[in-house]
From TrEMBL:
Full protein name: ABC transporter ATP-binding protein
Organism field: Streptomyces violaceoruber
Keyword entries, A-Z: Amino-acid transport, ATP-binding, Nucleotide-binding, Transport
Signal peptide: none
GO molecular-function term, one example from the UniProt record: ATP binding
BP GO terms, sorted: L-amino acid transport
PROSITE patterns the UniProt entry points to: ABC_TRANSPORTER_1 (PS00211), ABC_TRANSPORTER_2 (PS50893)
């Protein structure tokens, strides 16, 4: 579904992401973990077309889309939930939903991954209750739901989530994980940047540890759940670190 080969990207001539290979299958969650500055957001931005790769390829369903601008990639099936949510303070929930809705092209309506504002509100009923509230008046959890709603309204095939649980209370973290697993079960390919290995193993089929822009570990969620030693070692966590 999403296939990255040798993906290399950076800023102002400096390389941040060094030749990353990574695939996300439809119906599964691939989590990426790594310390601050490891290049997780750079990875997500490069896939979403917000940063241009200097080498490597991005393929969606086998079709190469490398280096295309963000609006083209959105049409090709990439949905992004950005780090920090980025909702508009002055717009209501309803206005966000209306502006984000991209009606499917003709012939595409039967596809199971097609989203409408009504379907989004069924999945995220809290947003319905807050319909007339402005972005600035929403709680962190509600803003996160709104950011997810905006991405879904583009009817993506690949969903990129950049630390969607950052700053949320544990009960909301669990809710976000449940949503992510539900969306993957419906056939989406989900690339989840996770703030902690514990959160990543909770919902991922595959995990990648990114260290200074390079993959230093790839493991299955199942193996990491059974024995997190390798995962913790790759992140250089000590016994007293939680995560
Ligand atoms: N727009 C930018 N211009 C220049 N350098 C940048 C830019 N964005 C990120 N960087 C640099 O690229 C490196 C990777 O940053 P990135 O934001 O991808 O890391 P991250 O893993 O997402 O970190 P965090 O966990 O803090 O979100 C860092 O050294 C950062 O300073
Ligand atoms: Mg980041």
């Amino acid at each position: 579904m999403l296939e990255l080969t040798g993906l290399t990207a950076g800023y102002h001539g400096g390389t941040v992401l060094h030749g990353l290979d990574l695939t996300v299958d439809a119906g599964s969650v691939h989590a990426v973990v790594g310390h601050n500055g490891a290049g997780k957001t750079t990875l997500v931005h490069t896939v979403a077309g917000l940063t241009r790769p200097s080498a490597g390829t991005v393929r969606i369903d086998g079709r190469e889309v490398t280096g295309q601008p963000a609006h083209r990639l959105a049409r090709a099936g990439i949905g992004l939930v950005p780090q920090g949510r980025r909702v508009f303070a002055g717009l209501t929930v309803e206005e966000h939903l209306r502006l984000s809705h991209r009606p499917p092209r003709r012939g595409d309506t039967a596809r199971p991954g097609v989203w409408t504002p009504a379907r989004v509100l069924e999945l995220l009923p809290r947003l319905g209750e807050r319909r007339t509230n402005r972005g600035a008046d929403l709680s962190g959890g509600e803003q996160q739901m709104l950011a997810l709603a905006r991405a879904l309204l583009g009817s993506p095939r690949v969903l990129l989530l950049d630390e969607p649980t950052e700053g949320l209370a544990p009960v909301l973290v669990r809710q976000v994980h449940e949503l992510v697993v539900t969306l993957a079960a419906e056939g989406l390919a989900v690339l989840l940047v996770s703030p902690s290995p514990a959160q990543a193993v909770a919902c991922a089929r595959t995990l990648t540890v990114l260290t200074s822009g390079r993959m230093t570990l790839r493991t299955s969620g199942e193996d990491a759940r059974a024995d997190p030693t390798a995962l913790r070692a790759a992140l250089e966590l000590t016994a007293t670190d939680n995560g």
